[in-house]
Specification:
The protein is an alpha+beta fold. The protein contains 18 helices and 24 strands. It is globular, with a radius of gyration of 30 Å.
Length: 595
C-alpha cells in the first residue's frame, strides 16, 4: 500500500465497505462524544469521517492534535447507520474506523479558522493566505477559475486561434495607466517596462502573418486598487485576428463568451450568442448614464432638458439656461412609498458628492413634491404621459453639467433598481458598447488626448483626422459589458503609418516622437500590414461574475491588499545597497510636507 494514501478523502463510497484503506489529509474538525472521537479528514478532493474509540490505538494521538494538523490514517471502511448518513457529502454513506494514525505535521494554534466561512479581517487573511485558501468556498473558487481558463483555451483553439507567449520585459506603452519599470543592470540609467497589455506585440504578430492569436496574458499596471481591479497584475484573454471587420470580431467572440458563461452558469440565464445588443456609446451615456450598463435593470434614463427651459421650477430653469441638462430616472410603482424613501435617495446623492437628487411623487395621478408644484400639474402630467409613466410612478431628477448629470443619473438608476428590487436575478446580460469617441479633451492638460486605445482605427480614416472636429470623430472601438462590468475592450486597429502619425500629431506628438516611441509598429506598417482587430477580456472579472463574488480577492490565489502590498511575502521591500549599486540607482525619499 502507498505510504500516504490508497484513496483520497473524496473517493470512498458504500461499495468500498470492508476494505482496509489509508488516507492522508488535514484535521478539519473534531467532535468528542465521550470515548468516541469523530474527525473530519480533509484533502483537496473532499472530506471523510474518521472514527476512533477506546479500542483504537489512534484515539490518544488524534485527541491531542490541533485542527489543521496533517495525519495519515489507516483503517477499515464501514457503512454508516441509516440515521447518520450525510446525503450532502459524497462520502456521506461511509466512515473509516481508525486502527492506526501517524502525524505528518503538527499545526500550531491557528491565526484564523479554516472550518466554517466566517468573515475575518483582510490583513489576517492575506498574511496567512495559505490557510485562507484551505477554506471550502475560496478553494472551490480557485478551482473554478482554473476550469474557466481551461474552457476558454479549448474554445479558442476550437475556432482556429493559436496561443502565443509575448515578452514580459518590454518598452513603455501608452495604455492609460502607469507602467511598472524594471531597471536594466547592463544599460545604466535605462528601464524596461512590464506590459500593461500585449497590444503592440499582438499587432506585430498579425503583421508577421500568424492570422489568429490568443493568450491568457499577464498584464501589469501601477494603478490604485478597486474591488473589480487587482493592484499590480491581472490576467486577460488577449486575442487578435487578421482581415476582419469589427462585426466579425463580435460574431466570433459572442459564442466563446456566451459558451463559457453557459458552461459555468449553474442554471442562471445567459444572453444567447448572436443576440448581444449593440449600443452606441452616446446612447449608453444617455439611457444608462454609463458606458458599462447593467441590462438586468429595466430602468431607462430620459433627457428632459427641453421640458425645463421655461419652467416654474427656477432651479432647473437656471441650470438649463446656463448650458446644463436635466435627466429623469423613473421610479415605477412607488405610490406606496413614504416620503422618507425619496428623501433618503436625496441624502444618498449628497453623500456621493452631488448637490442632490430632485424627485416627484405620484399617487393615483396626483403629483407631490416641490418640482411638480412649481412646474405645474398639467405640464408634469403631459411629461409623464409622453414618457409612458403611470399614475402611481414617481421619478427622480439629476440636473447639472452634462457629464455630472449623466454620472448622477447612472448611479441613481442603479440605486433605484436595487431599492425597488427591479434587478433581474440569476442572469448574465451581455451587450456591446460601440462607436466610442476617438479623442477627448483633457481639462487637466488643456489639450486633446486619446479617449481609449491610441492604436484604434478612426471612423472616416485619414480624411476624418484632417477635416473633422477631432471631438466628433468616432473609433472602431467596442467594449463587451456584462451586468454592469466591462468584461472586454477591443477595436479594429490602425495599420497605416501616415494615419498613425496624423492621429498622434493631434495629441501633440510629432512624427519623430512616433518613430521613437512606437518604432517597431511604425516600421512594421511600412512593410505590408493586414487589416486587423481584436479585443482583450478580463479573466479575473469573468471568474468573479461566475463565482458570484463582489471582490477579486475571492477568486485570486495570492492577491495584494488595498495598499498594493503583499502581506504574505512582505513585498514591496527595500532593496539592498549592493543591488541598487548594480542597477545604478539611488533612492530619493519623497519630500515631507513643511510644518
Amino acid at each position: 500500500m502507498h505510504p500516504y494514501r490508497s484513496h483520497t478523502c473524496g473517493a470512498l463510497r458504500a461499495s468500498d465497505v470492508g476494505q482496509t484503506i489509508r488516507l492522508s489529509g488535514w484535521v478539519h474538525r473534531k467532535r468528542d462524544h465521550g470515548g468516541v472521537l469523530f474527525v473530519d479528514l480533509r484533502d483537496h478532493y473532499g472530506m471523510t469521517q474518521i472514527v476512533a474509540d477506546v479500542d483504537s490505538s489512534a484515539l490518544a494521538l488524534l485527541e491531542g492534535l490541533r485542527a489543521e494538523s496533517v495525519v495519515t490514517i489507516e483503517g477499515e471502511v464501514k457503512a454508516r447507520s441509516e440515521s447518520t448518513v450525510n446525503a450532502g457529502l459524497p462520502t456521506g454513506a461511509i466512515e473509516v474506523y481508525a486502527r492506526s494514525a501517524a502525524v505528518l505535521s503538527r499545526a500550531e494554534e491557528l491565526p484564523l479558522p479554516v472550518a466554517g466561512e466566517q468573515e475575518y479581517p483582510e490583513d489576517v487573511r492575506l498574511k496567512y493566505r495559505f490557510l485562507d485558501l484551505r477554506r471550502e468556498t475560496l478553494h472551490a473558487n480557485i478551482m473554478k477559475r482554473t476550469a474557466i481558463i481551461r474552457e476558454t483555451r479549448r474554445r479558442m483553439e476550437d475556432i482556429g486561434f493559436t496561443e502565443f507567449s509575448t515578452p514580459i520585459l518590454t518598452a513603455s506603452s501608452p495604455e492609460g495607466a502607469r507602467d511598472f519599470l524594471v531597471p536594466s543592470r547592463i544599460h545604466a540609467g535605462k528601464f524596461f517596462a512590464l506590459p500593461q497589455a500585449p497590444q503592440q506585440y499582438k499587432q506585430l504578430l498579425m503583421v508577421a502573418g500568424f492570422d489568429r492569436y490568443f493568450q491568457i496574458a499577464p498584464c501589469f499596471r501601477d494603478e490604485d486598487p478597486r474591488a473589480d481591479r487587482l493592484p499590480g497584475e491581472f490576467y486577460q484573454l488577449d486575442l487578435e485576428m487578421s482581415f476582419v471587420t469589427q462585426e466579425e470580431v463580435w460574431e466570433t467572440m459572442e459564442p466563446v463568451m456566451a459558451g463559457i458563461f453557459e458552461t459555468f452558469a449553474e442554471g442562471r440565464k445567459v444572453t444567447p450568442a448572436g443576440s448581444f445588443p449593440r449600443i452606441p456609446y452616446a446612447k449608453a451615456m444617455l439611457d444608462y448614464g454609463t458606458d458599462k450598463p447593467d441590462l438586468r435593470n429595466p430602468l431607462v434614463i430620459r433627457d428632459v432638458t427641453a421640458e425645463f427651459r421655461q419652467s416654474g421650477f427656477g432651479l432647473f430653469e437656471k441650470i438649463v439656461g446656463s448650458g446644463g441638462t436635466v435627466r429623469l430616472i423613473p421610479a415605477p410603482a412607488t405610490a406606496d412609498k413614504s416620503r422618507k424613501f425619496f428623501d433618503d435617495m436625496n441624502e444618498w446623492a449628497r453623500s456621493e458628492g452631488h448637490a442632490g437628487l430632485g424627485y416627484v411623487t405620484r399617487k393615483g395621478g396626483v403629483f407631490g413634491g416641490p418640482i411638480a408644484k412649481n412646474h405645474g400639474e398639467d405640464r408634469m402630467a403631459a411629461l409623464f404621459d409622453s414618457l409612458g409613466l403611470g399614475p402611481d410612478d414617481g421619478a427622480f431628477f439629476a440636473a447639472g453639467k452634462e457629464e455630472q448629470a449623466a454620472k448622477l443619473a447612472g448611479a441613481a438608476r442603479t440605486r433605484v433598481g436595487e431599492q425597488l428590487d427591479l434587478i433581474e436575478q440569476d442572469a448574465f446580460r451581455f451587450c456591446w458598447i460601440v462607436d466610442f469617441p476617438f479623442y477627448e479633451w483633457s481639462e487637466e492638460e488643456k489639450k486633446l488626448d486619446f479617449a481609449h486605445n491610441p492604436f484604434s482605427m478612426p471612423q472616416g480614416g485619414l480624411e476624418a483626422l484632417e477635416s473633422q472636429d477631432p471631438l466628433t470623430i468616432k473609433a472602431y472601438q467596442y467594449d463587451m459589458v456584462c451586468n454592469g462590468y466591462e468584461l472586454a475592450s477591443g477595436s479594429i486597429r490602425n495599420q497605416h503609418p501616415d494615419l498613425m502619425v496624423k492621429a498622434f500629431e493631434l495629441v501633440g506628438l510629432s512624427k519623430a516622437d512616433v518613430e521613437e516611441r512606437f518604432g517597431g509598429m511604425y516600421r512594421a506598417f511600412q512593410y505590408g500590414a493586414p487589416p486587423h482587430g481584436g479585443m482583450a477580456a478580463g479573466v479575473d472579472r469573468m471568474v468573479m461574475l461566475l463565482c458570484g463574488v463582489q471582490n477579486l480577492r475571492e477568486i485570486t490565489l495570492f492577491p495584494m491588499n488595498q495598499r498594493a502590498e503583499d502581506l504574505l511575502m512582505g513585498a514591496p521591500s527595500p532593496a539592498a545597497l549592493k543591488q541598487l549599486r548594480e542597477l545604478h540607482i539611488r533612492v530619493v525619499e519623497p519630500q515631507r510636507p513643511q510644518g
